[in-house]
Amino acid sequence: MHSLRISILLLLLIHCAPLKEDVSDLDVRRIIDRISISRFSIRLENEDLTVLKTDKEIFYEACEVYRLKPEIVLNKIKSSHPQLYAKLKDSNEK
Predict the structure, then answer these.
(1) Which of 93, 74, 94 is nearest to 85 (CA)?
(2) How far is 61 from 1, CA to CA, in rounded Å?
(3) List of residues 6+ apart from 58 with CB closer than 8 A
(4) In this predicted model, what pLDDT tens digit does every residue of 48-59 receive, in sequence order?
(5) Higher pLDDT, 29 or 52
(6) Whether 87 contacts 59, CB under 8 Å
(7) Which of 5, 10, 21, 82 has its CA 20 to 30 A from that of 51?
(8) Rounded to an integer, what distance in angstroms lies between the CA atom of residue 44 and that of residue 14?
(9) How many domains are there within the chain?
(10) CA atoms within 13 A on the CB side of 33
């Protein structure tokens, strides 16, 4: 019971943590890896291919998971992965 309370407290602390202000190259790499893995797994798990998530949706989910500001990550991706940046920029209206 005590460990359950600690787990809930940690979960709340993590969920309420502020977004990171600085984004490292490792953070960008994590986002890109998560987008790649999500693209692949969504297609494997989804029988009805008409309900696939867009790259934009996957990107915002990844930023939320890693507690990163999407605008800052986009600026970092702009120079390192221009093709991905172009896809995300075209549909960057959330």
Answers:
(1) 74
(2) 32
(3) 34, 35, 38, 39, 42
(4) 666 678 889 999
(5) 29
(6) no
(7) 82
(8) 30
(9) 1
(10) 8
Tell me the β-bridge partners of 20. 68
User: In terms of Cα–Cα distance, which of 65, 5, 2 is closest to 35?
Assistant: 65
Domain that holds residue 55: 21-90
Give dist(CA 44, CA 64) in Å, integer: 23
Q: Is the residue at 13 inside a domain?
A: no
The sign of the torsion formed by the CA atoms of 46, 35, 73, 24 equals positive
In the block, tokens 């502020």 appear at 18
Distance CA 42, CA 94 (A): 21
Give a yes or no: residue 2 inside a domain: no
Q: Please report whether residue 14 resides in a domain.
A: no
Is 40 part of any domain? Answer: yes
Tell me the two tokens of residue 64.
Answer: 């939320």
pTM (two decimals): 0.71
- The confidence score (pLDDT) of residue 48 equals 67
pLDDT digits (tens, 9 = 90+) for 66-81: 889 999 999 999 989 9
